Amino acid sequence: MSAMRIAEGVEWAVHLCGVLGVVPAGFGLPAGRLAEFHELPPAYLAKHLQALSRAGIVTANRGVSGGYRLAKPATKITLLDITLAIEGSEPAFRCTEIRQRGPCAAAPAACKQRCPITKAFLDAETQWRKALASISVADIITTAASESFDKERRRTFQAWLNGAVK
Amino acid sequence: MSAMRIAEGVEWAVHLCGVLGVVPAGFGLPAGRLAEFHELPPAYLAKHLQALSRAGIVTANRGVSGGYRLAKPATKITLLDITLAIEGSEPAFRCTEIRQRGPCAAAPAACKQRCPITKAFLDAETQWRKALASISVADIITTAASESFDKERRRTFQAWLNGAVK
DNA sequence: GTACCCCTACTCGGATAGCGAGTGTCCGAGTCGGAATGG
DNA sequence: CCATTCCGACTCGGACACTCGCTATCCGAGTAGGGGTAC
After folding, report:
1. What does the DSSP assignment read for B54-71?
2. Between chains, do B51 and A1 touch, taking CB under 8 Å as contact?
């Protein structure tokens, strides 16, 4: 009774892209530091970072002073990009064509176009994707900064960042 | 890499509500017949029908000539109603408030309002729900009838229905 | 003949196993930086 | 003092267990209808 759950890795990924978005350009953060920032399991987070890397959202540098950084400007990365990178791009609704089964099955020839049920669900999903595509990581950063970053917390963050970037 | 899957029980439920929508008013179909109509596993389908019953979408009658029937006009039953009945009404995105954890945690006092990430995902989900709420079972029936019901199939269906209803 | 009662058959309802996808973890592949060394 | 080489430590990347929730099933609870029986 509680399906349709978005993987929590999506939440992690968006938060971390937000963090990477405020790292000075040219610098990166290793996976361990990113995990530390929100007290996330480092090994598992690494898996999700790989997915982001494969999707071209972040770039990975190896070596002693390596780490992850955004692959493109934060304004060009949308919540939809991140979601698809983590969850995959398959639609949530998958028609199994049960209308072609049973005593009153529709003839395959009559099923050239999608059944109205499938169409409705895919349309709804398009609306969902459109909404997510309209928000960028830069938007998230701006809003978060203005909403819940007082002077004190901003300094705490800067201090941590200075100790984390190489 | 393939999350966010809608339970296929939703697809079944919508199709079956469509079938129940064209049953003459005052008559019902037992779960076994409904399962037979699309060659679905009867026992498992029964579980979903229970969920529809609890949600007030269909009413269940016991006894020798009992069965399920729509609890309200097909125009008043939306795809969203059915989806929520099967999947539950919890939102797909669930914020775990990781912003309140780690070396730069936000103070609980600063988290009165939802973080912008959660807000964005819930807004997207609202768009999704709105799209599903705009389609009724009656709409599905109308479209399906006009798209893929030629005279021959319509007769086949009527014959099955006459043998199925009590 | 009729009214009542019981019984059977059929229905829904909730409690019970099985399996697959996300969740979590680990160790190996790859790379950069620096230290040691020889010129 | 400087260039070169080698070594080491740190990083990402993919392969391996575990847990929870959807999938699937069964048997018990409940009801309506019909047949039998007594009046």
Report:
1. HTTSEEEE-STT-EEEES
2. yes
Nucleotide nearest to B66 (CA to C1'): C11
Distance in angstroms: CA B40, C1' C29: 49
Number of CB pairs < 8 Å for A and B? 188
Task: Give me the phi and psi of B11, to 5 degrees please.
Answer: -60, -50
CB A16 within 8 A of CB A39: no
- For B55-101, how does the pLDDT look when each residue is reduced to its tens digit (9 = 90+)? 999 999 998 888 999 999 999 999 999 999 999 999 999 999 999 99
Which of A32, A37, A36 has the alpha carbon at shortest distance from A19?
A: A37
Closest CA to A98 of B15, B154, B144, B20: B15
Contact criterion met (CB below 8 Å) for A87 and B1: yes
What is the pLDDT at residue B166? 59
Q: Which of A1, A2, A4 to mutate to test the interface with B (most CBs of B within 10 A)?
A: A4
Q: Do B104 and A160 touch (CB under 8 A)?
A: yes
Contacts of B70 (CB under 8 A, 6+ apart): B17, B20, B21, B57, B58, B59, B77, B137
**How far out from the chain centre does Cα B16 lie?**
10
> What CA–CA distance (Å, rounded) separates B149 from B127?
32
Beta bridge mates, B2: none
pTM of this structure: 0.93
C-beta of residue A63 within 8 angstroms of C-beta of residue A75: no
Percent of chain A with pLDDT over 70: 98
Q: Determine how many CB atoms are found less than 10 A away from the CB of residue A130.
A: 12
The C-alpha torsion from B117 through B119 and B121 to B124, rounded to 10°, is -140
Strand C within 7 A of B47 CB: yes
